[in-house]
Design goal:
Layout (H helix, E strand, L loop, with lengths): L5 E2 L7 H11 L8 H14 L3 E5 L2 H11 L7 E4 L6 H8 L3 E4 L11 H9 L6 E5 L10 H11 L2 E5 L7 E3 L5 E3 L8 E5 L12 E5 L2 H11 L3 E2 L9 H5 L14 E2 L10 H11 L2 H19 L7 E2 L11 E4 L3 H10 L2 E2 L11 H4 L9 H9 E4 L7 H15 L1
Parallel strand pairs: 1-15, 3-4, 3-5, 5-6, 6-9
Antiparallel strand pairs: 2-10, 7-8, 9-10, 11-12, 13-14, 14-16
Length: 398
């Protein structure tokens, strides 16, 4: 057992996945074909949103969201320091200013009370938006954040890369799916191999706002539209000469804004569709694994904190906090268990330190980083492998 490598995350590619990709590769379309919209509609139905826009990766999704919401130079946007850097970087891509706010040490999520204090300490209009992150798969209470955002006139981008299939309990004790568009203006997902749904690379944006949806479609493809109702130039220009009928030729298109090539391919979409069919089974397996970890470590003296069992948690990660994190990390690797650390606080990355962020600014995030370690968590992790992970951790401390 100890000779087998156990990573922290792993994709699950089945024969059915392989077959649908081969079928897509043999089709007439490798990109910009029918599989894209098919995947978008299926994903929107899964999440419960009105619209979905497939893109090349989660970072592209964040960038497009920031562009669609009009982030510009000098705009201040609040996010958590415990996230992958892309959650913050999308603001910088547009020239905006990232303002980090500390986490709740019990949930590892952006602390709404600290965000409120930040907003109340400045004149209204100082901040433009909030990017809360469903970190590790635990859903942010977006209903509460929506009320706060409305009070201060802010938009919300929900970074739900860790949480397709995740949910939180609203004020009526009803589960609200991550990314369903009921509270956030826009939400984004990632289809990186270690995520719940793997496309190799890929991402999705969900929203219930039709205007934002149309903006995203154009921004995804160079800012180009083929919608005749949106054209600016005349039919004479489009055709090259005056015609009796005021019609645009079928080849015509217009670039109306500066966009990007952030498209997903059809064979990636085909893989995503196949993976989506098993998404609920994958979530169920992740929650089973989390329950086992919780039982194994809940009363251990060497555990300072853990992800625990939380209703609606999607368990992209299962995290424990320990004093001797480096020692445990190295010991696990010696036993071919490749745990991971999520994440180095963004505000202490050298890039963000140039803006004045320093150690001590986010005490809860910084303490969390010193202690956290993500254990193997993926649907194909066997009971024997999980028992081995638990055994090795216990043997190190006991």
């Amino acid at each position: 057992m100890g000779q087998n490598i156990i990573p922290y995350g792993r994709q699950n590619i089945t024969e059915e996945d392989i077959n649908v990709v081969i079928e897509a590769l043999k089709s007439e379309y490798l990109t910009q074909g029918p599989k894209i919209s098919e995947f978008e509609h299926a994903f929107a139905n899964y999440i419960g949103s009105k619209f979905a826009v497939a893109v090349s990766n989660g970072t592209a999704a964040l960038h497009l969201c920031a562009l669609a919401l009009g982030v510009k130079e000098g705009d201040k946007v609040i996010t958590t320091p415990i996230t992958f850097a892309a959650s913050a970087n999308c603001v910088r891509y547009c020239g905006g200013e990232v303002i980090f706010s500390d986490i709740d040490p019990n949930t590892y999520l952006l602390d709404i009370n600290k965000v409120r204090s930040l907003l109340e300490s400045s004149p209204k209009g100082t901040y433009k938006g909030i990017i809360p992150v469903d970190f590790a798969g635990r859903a942010v209470d977006l209903e509460a954040f929506r009320k706060l955002a409305d009070e201060f006139g802010l938009w919300i981008i929900e970074d739900a890369c860790h949480a397709p299939g995740g949910a939180f309990l609203n004020s009526k004790n009803i589960l609200e799916n991550c990314g369903n568009g009921n509270f956030a203006d826009l939400a984004i997902f990632s289809f990186h191999p270690v995520k719940h749904i793997a496309c190799g690379e890929g991402g999705m944006i969900t929203t219930n706002d039709e205007k934002l949806y149309k903006k995203l479609l154009a921004l995804r493809t160079h800012g180009i539209t083929k919608n005749e109702g949106e054209y600016v130039n005349s039919t004479k220009f489009a055709n090259g000469f005056e015609t009796e009928e005021i019609v645009y030729p079928s080849w015509y298109m217009e670039m109306q804004t500066l966009g990007f090539n952030y498209r997903l391919t059809d064979f990636q979409a085909a893989l995503g569709l196949s993976q989506l069919e098993r998404a609920n089974d994958g979530i169920a397996k992740r929650r089973e694994i989390a329950t086992n970890y919780n039982k194994a470590f809940i009363n251990k003296s060497f555990i300072k904190g853990q992800s625990g069992v939380v209703e609606g948690h999607a368990y992209h990660l299962y995290i424990i906090e320990v004093d001797d994190r480096l020692g445990l990390y190295n010991y696990l690797r010696k036993n071919n268990i490749f745990a991971q650390i999520h994440y180095i606080p963004c505000h202490l990355m050298p890039y963000y330190k140039q803006f004045g962020w320093k150690e001590g600014d986010m005490p809860f995030a910084e303490q969390y980083y010193k202690d956290c370690i993500s254990l193997p968590m993926y649907p194909t992790l066997t009971e024997e492998e999980q028992e081995f992970v638990i055994k090795i951790i216990n043997s190190y401390f006991e």
